[in-house]
Structures are given as structure tokens and as C-alpha cells.
Amino acid sequence: MLIVENNPKSIGAEAYRTLRTNIQFSSLDKEIKSILVTSAYPGEGKTTTISNLALAFAQADNKVIVVDGDLRKPTVHRAFEVTNINGVSDVLIGKVSIGEAIKEYSENLHVMTCGTVPPNPAEMVASQAMKKLVEELSLRYDYILIDSPPILPVTDAQVISTFVDGTILVAASSESEKQGIKKAHEQLMKVNGNIIGAVITKVKKKSGKAYSGYQIYYGSESEDMKM
Ligand SMILES: Nc1ncnc2c1ncn2[C@@H]1O[C@H](COP(=O)(O)OP(=O)(O)OP(=O)(O)O)[C@@H](O)[C@H]1O
Ligand SMILES: [Mg+2]
């Protein structure tokens, strides 16, 4: 999953570095520190995208933290192979401090996993405590990357989009029908989410077979979200 680290010379790794550069350029007018990564449907590549993007930021000497905002089916701890004990939900209920919930994957890349899977994820991510957590992390890191559940089945990501600087919409080229992406886009626009770009994953070769590597395509909303 961590292609930027495991195969840095691959085309896929280069695509994540390009995504990083594009985000850095899109923060020229307004500083973009906290970024939500979401998609219309499950399994489109959110966690893979966020993990590799975090590695790319860290390699460019940015201090970055990946926060698992998917309190339903959390997997960030698996991506980085760290323990899921004490994470976001434990901070939100006041069981542990922010510092106690941070795992150091590397010097520049820290991780806050989900922690205990809560019975009320929607309520938790919509809480003032969640907002405060993101604010607090913004003081400590250059970039806060927040993973999330898909937008269409549950409201969590839509809510998070209201208090982050920007949102990236991930879409698997073979799976997301246009309607799904369009609906996800509409849900974000409804709450004035600031969509800073779209990442297309699982891009097919001309032969019709999906690339085995991580092909991604990134574009700004104005050019590429038009449907
Ligand atoms: N750019 C890509 N190209 C090819 N395959 C990819 C790409 N990104 C992710 N995948 C594959 O798609 C599958 C789902 O990826 P991932 O877990 O990142 O999705 P997700 O959106 O986080 O899923 P969930 O909604 O369950 O949290 C994995 O098997 C992963 O290897
Ligand atoms: Mg995921």
C-alpha cells in the first residue's frame, strides 16, 4: 500500500508526489493545512491515497499527521502497521490527551489512529471536540490529512468537510459511475466544502485491464469535476 516508500521510483509514487505539489500550489491564496480525503463509495482508494500522500509530504520535509476519521471501518493503523490502541475516539471522550494518542511512524510522519471503535461515529466527528482536535493539530503540523468513510452512505465526511481547509474526492475510474461522483460532489457543495481536487484511482489501460500499480490522476475542480 505504501508505494511512495516501497517503490519510490515507480510511476505511481511519482503521481503521489505530483499530487503533493499540486496541493502545495493550491494553497497559494489560502493556506491549506487540514485536508479531508473522501469518496462517493467504499473501496475507491481513500486510505491508500492518504497514506501515500502523507509519505510524499513527509519526504519533502513537511511535518504531517494522518488522522483516521473513519471511525466505522478504520484501517489507517493497518496501512502504517501501528497499534490502534488510543486514538481519535479516545481523545474525543477525554480518555487520553492528544499527545498520548499520537504514534510516530517516522520523524516527519505521525499517525492518530481511530482508537476504540465508538457506537456513535457520526456524533463523534460532528462534535466540538473533533473540531478542536483539528485546530490543535494545525498548530503542531504543516499538514493534517484526515481519512473518512465514503460520503454517500453516511454523513461523517460531509460534516468533517465543513471544518477543514480542503477536501479531496477520490474516485475509482472503473467503479464510480458519474452519478455517484456527482452526488458526492453535490453533498460537499451543500455544506460549502472546499473541494481542492479529485484523484482518479484504478485507471485502466487501453487493453481494459487495470494497472497493477497505483495510477492516479489529479485535477482541479474547475477543470475536472465538470460533468
Ligand atoms: N490508485 C490505485 N490503483 C489501483 N488500486 C488501488 C489504488 N488505490 C487503492 N487501490 C486498491 O483499492 C482497494 C481499496 O483501497 P483503500 O482501502 O485505500 O480504499 P478505501 O476507499 O479507503 O476503502 P474503504 O471505503 O473501505 O475505507 C485496495 O485493494 C487498494 O490496493
Ligand atoms: Mg479506507
Summarize the model shown.
This protein is α/β, with parallel strands linked by helices and 227 residues long.
Strand tally, please?
8
- Low-pLDDT stretches: 220-227
The main sheet comes to:
8 strands, mixed
- The CATH topology label is Rossmann fold
Give a structural overview.
The protein is of the alpha/beta class and 227 residues long. 39% of the residues lie in helices and 17% in strands. The chain contains eleven helices and eight strands. It has an eight-stranded mixed sheet, with helices on both faces. Strand 6, helix 10 and strand 7 form a beta-alpha-beta unit. The chain starts with a helix and ends with a helix. Bound molecules: adenosine-5'-triphosphate (ATP) and magnesium ion (MG).
Give a topology summary:
Elements: H1 3-6, H2 11-26, E1 34-39, H3 46-59, E2 64-68, H4 76-79, H5 88-92, H6 98-101, E3 103-104, E4 109-112, H7 121-125, H8 128-140, E5 143-147, H9 156-161, E6 166-172, H10 178-190, E7 195-201, E8 217-219, H11 221-224
Parallel strand pairs: 1-5, 1-6, 2-4, 2-5, 6-7
Antiparallel strand pairs: 3-4, 7-8
Helix pairs in contact: 2-3
The structure holds adenosine-5'-triphosphate and magnesium ion.
